[in-house]
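Margin note: ligand = adenosine-5'-triphosphate.
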Amino acid sequence: AMVVRDGQEIIIPSRELVPGDLIVLQAGDTIPADATVLDSVCLSVDESILTGESDSDSKDLRTPKLFTGTAIAAGHAEACVTAIGAKTEFGHIAELTGSIGSKQTHLQKHLSKLASQLGFTALIIAGGISVLGIALGRDLTEMLMTGLSLAVAIVPEGLPAVVTITLALGAAAMVRQNALARRLQAIETLGAASVICTDKTGTLTENKMTATRIWTPDQLFQVTGTGYDPAGHIEADDGKRVRARDDAHLAQILKIAATCTHARLVRGQKDWAMTGSPTEGALLALAFKGWQSRATDGDIISEIPFDSDRKRMSVLSRASEGNEILMKGAPEAILSVSTNIRTADGNQPLGESNHNSIREAYEEMAADGLRVIAFAARKTPEQNITESGMTFLGLVGLIDPPRPEVRDAIKSARSASIRVLMITGDSPVTARAIAAQVGLDADTVVTGKSLDEQDDAGLRELLKSDVILARTRPADKMRVVSTLQAQNQIVAMTGDGVNDAPALKQADIGIAMGIRGTDVAREAADLVLLDDNFATIVGAIGEGRRQFSNIRKFVRYLLSSNAGEIVALVVNIAIGGPLIFLATQILWMNLVTDGVTAVALGLEKGEPDQMEMPPRRKDEPILGVGGVALICLLGLYSGSASYWIFNSLLDSGVDLARTTAFTAMVTFEKISVFAFRSLHLPCWRIGWLSNPLLLVAFVVTMGAQVLAIYWTPLQHLLHTVAIGQNQWLLIAGFALPLLIVPELVKTIQYVASQRAR
Ligand code: ATP
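Resulting structure:
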């Protein structure tokens, strides 16, 4: 929340607000506490979160109450906090409301499908075998116990915990890399993204703007200095320094830069700090470089704020010679309401030749990647703003350098077959220039206006190629997302403004900006970029891919372990005799030993080639045919081996036979985990020690099994007895192939694939 404390506007965490605080609210802010409006300009508040009605309510001083959780849709205000936390209207409602439902992610859908399939299988197999046994005349209690053991064996009880732990650890890792997931599954879904729709300013560029050029119909000025530091100066063509008082035309432009703004520059200990929009901050710094003082708040009578749809901002300013409308914005948006142009010969009607020279100057600046802002003004006797009949004054070019890391991030996205589409509110020429600087080659640049002329089929066709969308409005983003989704693409969309919220909600992954994003955009998003940086998105995609691949690894691992138990039990029941495993032993295997190993498997690092693969298909199952085959093969081997051990030791006593079979099954499961570390690369390629936690888990779970068979309390609990050296040798003999064979097969595959390259 922006609050005035000790006469300074500062940003503090909302939870530190107290009643009586003076807060400053801008469009896009979520109101942080119940408050009373003291002063406002064009204030409109979206109270739909409280009222359920989507229309914004225009607030003025007759209805001065603002409620926590509602959002400023437009305008700005100063308000005094009246209630905080649970004492607010929102707090009362929150007490009464439970959690709000949200859309299911692809992972949730896949997992619930898998859960019902497993549940169904468990019912059929466990029920079927019990009924069959009873029908064949076997003991009722024994068959009920067998059915129960089978059901326990089929269901991977540790799975929900392992999935949650993996996602939570992944999300924690991502926060350290500046991507904050608002839902646990967000990053995993991002891993499947096939298109990233990104804005330009601040995401591909630094959003540290500096004015470098000023154009008027008669002069071109250069500006020195960097950042928001007003230490710099304006130079005319002949290299002479100029200030506002030397040139009335320049002075008028600088006055607009200093008046038509909400930015503030404050001298910090080391550097100048800016609050507000970077565009306005850079223009304010420009005004100071030209020795133009800032208007006092009392000079501004009214304002039409900037928004991305209109792409301009106007204020009505009180001056000694009468009121004046001062306006700045995108050149097209200013030209569309201008009828005159100011030149050295005075004001003239804006004709074709003026349009041409303005366009030339504009394109020249934009081709260098500059953001161009146009300025206009008009005297008026009225007390309100009518945006027409303006006098065009000139252009200012702002440099906003591309982020250095973006080029590599785009390359990496490309090699992962992810398309990157730039959707910007900036001009087509600037957009193309910045795209070229970051290595985003595009066939065409299309403007928001020409999108309106395209029907849905045309837009679908257009979005198949690499395009840049420039001068777009927030509503265009929504159309682009839906069109891409209709083409079966998984879309990640960035946004920062209030009007971006619907598109962020609609996208498979809505990404809001942590620094310049509005609260409304952040609340609509699944992921918040704490550094606003495009490269962070690509990093998060890598993390998402790692998470899905690891979920897939441990699901397969857990099920292959269960398959071994089922095979052993089924063979055991078919042949008859005492039960090979007791229900408590199965639970021990599934929950204690498998659970720990699976969590460690979830921490596997991303495979070296994960960003060289295309994104996974939307409907790609967790198991897949290959997965089922692997589960069956390993299950058949470990199940029959344990049964063979059990059967061969029965003569030495059922407890010894059962304990050895139980320990054999646990050992097989532990050894086979190495086969699941990568589904296509051998361990020597990914590094035997690259997941130290897996080795720790291996030692800990084998240690737990040793306790289970030698420590008396656990012996009682699990009905085990101590086993001897011979039994251990037998187990080791059967376990070794589980380590060697998968390594061998993957090595052969790997060598063959390297040769094929
Ligand atoms: P992106 O979507 O890539 O972040 P953007 O920030 O340039 O693009 P908008 O905020 O919609 O998109 O700005 C569109 C245009 O409006 C800019 O190119 C600029 O010419 C103009 N503009 C931006 N900020 C202001 C402002 N504060 N006042 C007046 N005009 C502005």
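Residues 199-201, 277, 279-280, 306, 308, 311-313, 328-330, 371, 373, 424-426 surround adenosine-5'-triphosphate (CB under 6 Å).
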